[in-house]
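Record type: monomer structure entry
Structure origin: computed from sequence
Chain ID: A
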Amino acid sequence: MIDKSITSQILKVSNKLEFLEPHEPRIVTIHDALHKIGFENAKR
């Protein structure tokens, strides 16, 4: 089971402007967030 506070932090980072393209929808799942920012970056 994934800690909800960690999930929340990862979703916040993945929805920051430097990761999103113009007109791209918000990321709402942990799977999509990890895919977007990269698993290695999320481990840091």
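Annotation 1: The helical segments are 4-14, 30-37, 39-43.
Annotation 2: The chain has a mean pLDDT of 83.
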